[in-house]
Amino acid sequence: MDKKIKILLSKLGLDVHNRGVITVARQLRDAGMEVIYLGNALPTEILNTAVQEQVDIIGVSSLGGAHITLGKDLIEEAVEEGLKEKMIFVIGGIFSIEDESKLKDIGFDGVFTAGATKDEIVGSIHSFVKERAGQ
Amino acid sequence: MDLDKMRTKKILAGADKNADTNPLYNPEALKKIKKKFDAFKSTFEGPDSRCNWELTPQTILGSNIPREMLYTPLHCPDTDYSFDLGMAGNEPFTRGIHTNMYRGKKFTMRQINGYGGPEDTNKRMRFMLGHGGTGVSVIFDLPTIQMYDSDDPISKGQVGMSGVAIDSAKDMEILFAGIPIDEVTISLVSHYPSNTAILFPMYLAAAEKKGISLDSLKGSVQNDITLEEVVRSGPEYIPPQDCFRIQCDNIEYIRKNVPSFNFVTLNGYNLHEFGTSGVTEMAVAVSNAIETLDELIKRGYDVDWAAKRLAFFWSISSDFFEEASRIRAVRRLWYKIMKHRFKSKNPRSMWMRCHVQTSGISLTRQEPLNNLIRASIQALSAVLGGVQSLHVDSYDEAFSVPTEESALLSLRTQQIIQEETAITEVVDPLGGSYYVEALTNDIEKRILEEIDQIEKVGGYVKAIEKGWIHNKIAQYFYEEKEKIENGEIKFVGSNIYKAEKNKNPSLEIFKYPEGVEERQKASIAKLKMERDNEKVSSTLKALEDACRKNVNIVPYSLECARAYCTCGEIFKVFKKAFGLWRPPVMW
Questions:
Q1: Residues of B with CB below 8 A from A18's CB?
Q2: Which residues of chain A have a CB within 8 Å of the CB of B145?
């Protein structure tokens, strides 16, 4: 049997909107993943928790406009700590189309915007995990 | 036992029975209608039925209220016109709180403003007022709302995002420079009791600097525990009981000292949008209002003194008739609660005054121009419901904060309804529709039923502490998301009639001004050099003592504002004095 995928979810910084991330947390749990929800946190705390919990994936949510600044911090810190290759990074929230591609350039494996469905999110995560395993 | 006696549903049931009924429809006529109606209805039953007689519309943020095919007097057979509807501006206010409604007083066209530093938002506010806006809503950035300073490490990258950055009374002075705040009504979207206790005193300090007397200030704060303890996601929370006390302190202080200001806006909006039905939205806000009035009465005030400027804020979503009926239903229910539960004597306290906003969650990223249509229809339903003040969402909000152009378009939507359609020339035009009256009755019952559930849990603050509200909402929005994904709830251009090629819209997206964070950091540094730091420490200490004692904290927080204490400094005092609370897990 496949190992259960373990994912850490967090709100990035001070963003107040958490309906999306809570919904995703439940969807991923229902899809058989082990989900840890950290609440609001900054990149360093997110990465520390991810290491402690030995997760496969880090998912962050941002609807307040700080996705580029804090998203970049998260990826850069992950690279410094040697975590970027070990874990998969996904982000969800309200982004302009321009920022959607910027976030991919920054290094997020998956970028999900308003309207992303459970199938899209779960499907992408499975394929990211498969890709990594194949490497 | 005592608690059971105070149950709103029981009190109102008693009151309804006492009324002398004078039914609008005579029993003979109803009998005749029933005969024809039954025959008509029977053609829809059976396996070959053309379609079901009854269905439950599936719409975003809807209340799952079943609807029949056709409505007749049989759906509201006991209607007593004077008792249930009456004249506008008269009890029970179902038809509106003012006698002449929009002919006398147009709805306030109040659009939200707020981004960047105080000077940026000042510019946008002047633009909107210059184009016929009749009020201003100011929304604050994430650090300000969450009560951290722009130079706090946790604020990085978020200063001036989705709202304006305010660190001290100095920034309030800049924000309102050149704006006649003794003439224009200002709504400060200070969501939480805690940040209302921080930001409103800063506003007062800025008004004092302008030489404006506090009694000429008009507008609203939000000041709602629901937002701080239920709807918000934040790193730190103070306990619900303390939060509720601050809410009541704010009300008490503002009612006494800033008499024309709405001291609480019971905010259903953010709760509804967070993910709950329109019925729960109203049940929660009304329960909060009931508990707040109970507390103010306990503090020794007369209910009519306390209730005079109470206001509500609702989100108007897509089920057109449900939304208009909901406003009418809660207006009548609020009247009954004030009259029978609180024995109010002043009709003004019985007014369910409200500001509404069209639904943000109903906006889609695909084909964003469709959002213009959605928001216009929602706005129309709000106006037909008889609201006092309106914000229309902009079509580009699934991407970012609205641009100047799209914000203007939202204002234009309101102006078109107001000036071009004649909709506002007749009071409560939907009144008397069998469908709308039946739906209004049904919704009123449902709201009261949910208020009763909350009261059975032990009241509103208890329902928060126990996680009852959190769980109810989480369950709703999880199920709703599934319905959107499986297409039960339809979004044109998004999950139905999808365009073959999903081309990206050519939208000009709002861009935040650059360098706001640096500017705010520099101005805090300068402020800390220039202000009297001893005074800062002593006012903060006095505030902390007040928090621990049984006194109103707002005068102390006003002293802090006058001394140019920062948001972060004042919130630290609250956290120290009240301790931290962990909200219930929602999934």
A1: 233, 586
A2: 14, 16
The answer to whether domain B116-265+528-587 has CATH 3.40.630.30 is: no
Candidates B379, B110, B415; CA nearest to B262 is: B110
Nearest 10 degrees: Cα torsion B411, A15, A93, B232? -80
Angstroms from B8 CA to nearest CA on chain A: 31
Give A40's contacts in chain B (Cβ within 8 Å): 233-235
Query: Across the interface, do B158 and A98 touch by the CB < 8 Å criterion?
Result: no
Nearest to B166 by CA among B178, B182, B148: B148
Please give the Cα distance from A124 to A90 (Å, whole number): 10
Give per-10-residue mean pLDDT for chain B (587 aa): 75 75 91 95 70 88 94 95 94 95 84 89 89 84 96 94 94 95 91 97 97 94 95 94 98 96 93 95 97 97 94 96 98 97 96 95 92 97 95 89 88 94 96 98 98 96 95 92 94 90 69 90 97 98 97 98 98 98 86
Alpha-carbon separation of residue B551 from B246, B292, B554, B578 (angstroms): 10, 17, 9, 14
Give the residue carrying structure tokens 């609201």. B387
Q: How far, in Å, are B36, B47, B126, B312, B386 from residue B429 at the CA level?
A: 28, 38, 35, 22, 9
For chain B, where do the domains classified as CATH 3.20.20.240 start and end?
Answer: 1-41+51-89+268-385+394-426+434-499, 116-265+528-587
**Has domain A6-134 been given CATH number 3.40.50.280?**
yes
Please give the DSSP secondary-structure letter assigned to residue B82.
Answer: I
CATH of B1-41+51-89+268-385+394-426+434-499, one of 3.40.50.620, 3.20.20.240, 3.40.50.300, 3.40.5.60: 3.20.20.240
To which H or E segment does residue B169 belong? helix B169-175
Q: How far apart are CA B427 and CA B219, in angstroms?
A: 25
Could you say which of A13, A17, A118 has the minimum Cβ distance to residue B157? Answer: A13
B144/chain A closest Cα distance in angstroms: 10
Mean residue pLDDT of chain A comes to: 93
Residue B475: closest C-alpha in chain A: A23
pLDDT at B504 (0 to 100): 63
CB contact under 8 A, A16 and B154: no
Phi-psi region of B344 (alpha: psi -120 to 50; beta: other; left: phi over 0): beta
The reply to whether residue A37 touches residue B153, judged by beta carbons under 8 angstroms, is no
Distance (Å) from the alpha carbon of A30 to chain B's nearest alpha carbon: 11
Which residues on B lie below 8 Å from A69 (Cβ)? 156-158
DSSP B60: T
Q: What are phi and psi of B185, to 5 degrees?
A: -85, 135
Angle of helix A19-30 relative to helix A118-134, nearest 10 degrees? 60
Structure token pair of residue B454: 């909350």
In chain B, which residues have their Cβ closer than 8 Å to the Cβ of A13? 142, 154-158
pTM over 0.90: yes
Which of A9, A10, A14 to mutate to probe the B interface, most B CBs <10 Å?
Answer: A14
Helices (H), B502-553: 516-530, 533-548
Residue closest to B34 by CA, chosen among B72, B91, B61 = B72
State the residue for tokens 């006494």. Answer: B256
Compute the nearest-CA separation of A115 from chain B (Å).
7
ipTM value of the model?
Answer: 0.88
The domain locations on chain A are 6-134
Q: Do A64 and B142 touch (CB under 8 A)?
A: yes
Taking one residue from A and the other from B, the number of pairs with CB-CB distance under 8 angstroms is 108
